[in-house]
Amino acid sequence: MPLPEPVARAQREQMVAQQIEGRGIRDPAVLAAMLAVPREVFVAEKYQEYAYDDAPLPLPEGQTISQPYVVALMAASLKLRPGDQVLEIGTGSGYAAAVLSRIAAAVYTVERHDSLATYAREKLALLGYNNVSVLCGDGTLGWPEYAPYDGIVVAAGGPRVPHALREQLVIGGRLVMPVGSRPRLQQLVRLTREGEQMYRKEALSRVRFVPLIGAQGWEGEQDDWDEVEGE
Ligand code: SAH
């Protein structure tokens, strides 16, 4: 059964206070977006009651909807301004795209699984978030048609920042992505394009994302979870 709006609203307020502000995220636009977007709409029916838990939740195709704090952390790390054009790689449920759409002017998001791209489009349309465009394809190649972007966020972990994505940043633009030498254990990295060929790299926190699979990501569906577990 869907959560009644007053209940959902109260849970969102608590989530923002405890999980987001409570962990040091102060960007008012990010906090307002996290308060506005109904996460329960993006999670599967059977996980409704956990929609505002401090955890990732399962999606079809073995993927996950990110933990709310991670969505807020990535959005805040992008240092977005209201007129910005944003590219997201890894649409998943569409939840993070919805949050970004409340902060920036337009969001272009790429998902490799057709079923998830369709799922996200439906949810975003239902909520009337019409400044989000969803493409099904290999996001490691970016979305050249609407480039360059002020912000690029990659919601899956890859071995390195794909060349195509660096190239699709405006000068002054920021890219945030989990990078690691193993498919499921990464460091969140921020790349700022400071000139035509000049990028500044900063390491943010340690994170655990599903793998980025594509031409400039990992090669195939490999599950090295057992190898990584226990670290
Ligand atoms: N932002 C999402 C969570 C993303 S999980 C949300 O809010 O729900 C990561 C997603 O990245 C998965 O859906 C996975 O299928 C997708 N993905 C992995 N490699 C990709 C690639 N090369 N291009 C596009 N999407 C990719």
Give a written overview of the molecule.
This protein has seven helices and nine strands. Helix content is 28%, strand content 26%. The C terminus is likely disordered. α1 runs antiparallel to α2. It has 231 residues and is an alpha/beta fold. The radius of gyration is 16 Å and the shape is globular. The structure holds S-adenosyl-L-homocysteine (SAH). The site of S-adenosyl-L-homocysteine has 25 residues, from β2, α4 and β4.
Features:
disordered C terminus; about 25% strand; alpha/beta; seven-stranded mixed β-sheet; Rossmann fold; globular; about 230 residues; about 30% helix; 7 helices
Helical stretch tally = 7
- The radius of gyration is 16 Å
| Second rung of CATH, namely the architecture of the domain at 54-207 | 3-Layer(aba) Sandwich
Order of helix and strand elements from N to C terminus: HHEEHEHEHEEHEEEH
What is the fold-level CATH name, i.e. the topology of the domain at 54-207? Rossmann fold
Average pLDDT figure: 93
Q: Look at the helices and sheets and give the structural class.
A: alpha/beta
Tell me the overall shape.
globular
How much of the polypeptide forms β-strand, as a percent range? 25-35%
Q: Identify every distinct bound molecule in the structure, by name, code or SMILES.
A: S-adenosyl-L-homocysteine
Let me know the CATH homologous superfamily of the domain at 54-207. Answer: Vaccinia Virus protein VP39
Measure the end-to-end span: 38 Å
DSSP summary, beta strand count: 9
Architecture blueprint of SSEs:
Elements: H1 5-20, H2 28-36, E1 57-58, E2 64-65, H3 68-77, E3 85-89, H4 95-101, E4 106-111, H5 114-126, E5 132-136, E6 149-154, H6 163-167, E7 169-182, E8 185-195, E9 198-207, H7 225-228
Helix pairs in contact: 1-2, 2-4
